[in-house]
Amino acid sequence: MFNIWGHLSEYNSCRDTEFSLSSATTVKFKFSSGYSYCSGYYRLEVESESGKQVLSKSGYLDGYDVTYSVSLAAGTYYVYVYNDDEYDNDLSYDLYGYRYYQPPKNPTKLKFCKTKLSLERGNGYYIKTTYSPSDVSSKLTFSSSNKKIATVSKDGEYCFVKGKNLGTCTVKAKMGNKTAKCTVVVKSTYVQMKCGKKKDLSGLVKKASGYKKAKWSSSKKSVVSVDKKGKIKAKKHGIAKITAKIKGRKYTITIYSYSRKGVKKRLLTYLKDNLIAPQSLKVGRITYPAYNSCRIWYSAYNKFGERIYSDIYGEMQKDVMYISW
């Protein structure tokens, strides 16, 4: 692009040149002493046509080459070289500016540590990618064929996959001219509902891959019943697994059916097991702010008339459905 020679004999005296780029590229500046006896301190600055400084470097030339690289957009740029030696030592230099592009090195192999992955809706998993050779410089990217089913994000060499809705999609890793794929199946989720309530689950699976018609069943009909259209009814306190079979693949919805009586019973059992002989228990408001948690306001007194707690927060355990503290 340009090659200039300069000789600056006074402190802060300046020489300048300019160059233009028709497209965005990386420019490399190679800076060296013109004569070893004229080595000295320098300041190299590059500005865009608008006056924005895109490069500012200071140093000492002592006979060895100094190089700087900067990525620039299309346009005109101005280069300034200053003698930065306060003792007014002469500075002689050669400055080369040229386009510098090193094409990224593509991998010969790229793969995921998993080719199949099953997730629960709302849960995530890190899939590691491996590639060779180790000095590959191509950019690694991840994508999902259906973001409504599973989303992806990049964390170094890991692809973080998060289940969004029941169904199947493909997660892809791309690096240069190589790709790797992993089939992701989001096949289980959970729903929390109060006894006596009804809910239509068909919407949870209608977007699943290959969905046409599902065959529905309940693991505990006495707790939660389901009809052939996927409509359920929570009957009593407990857990039931609702299964939808679609083209040979099973999708499971765990139903947490709760009642005030069931929660109160579990709470009383907990107090008897863990506190000092509670003689009375009054359960106030019960709220379920999330799928797997609840907060209970209550008051309990032991046999000495001492108040034990006023409120408690716990998680719903999947194995027992009840609340544990």
Features of the shown structure:
Immunoglobulin-like; Jelly Rolls; 4-stranded antiparallel sheet; 4 domains; 6% helix; 26 strands; disordered C terminus; 59% strand; 325 residues
Could you describe the 3D structure shown?
The protein has 325 residues and is mainly beta. The strands form six sheets. Strands 10, 12, 15, 16, 18, 21 and 22 form a seven-stranded mixed β-sheet that branches. Strands 1-8-3-6 form a four-stranded antiparallel β-sheet, with no helix packed on it. Strand 15 and strand 16 form a beta hairpin. The chain contains two helices and 26 strands. The protein has four domains: 98 residues, Jelly Rolls (Sandwich), CATH 2.60.120.380; 78 residues, Immunoglobulin-like (Sandwich), CATH 2.60.40.1080; 64 residues, Immunoglobulin-like; 65 residues, no CATH class.
How would the global form be characterised? elongated
The value of Rg in angstroms is 35 Å
Structural class call reads mainly beta
- Give the overall average pLDDT: 81
Which architecture of the largest domain does the CATH hierarchy give at level 2? Sandwich
Strand content: over 45%
Q: Under the CATH scheme, which class of the largest domain?
A: Mainly Beta
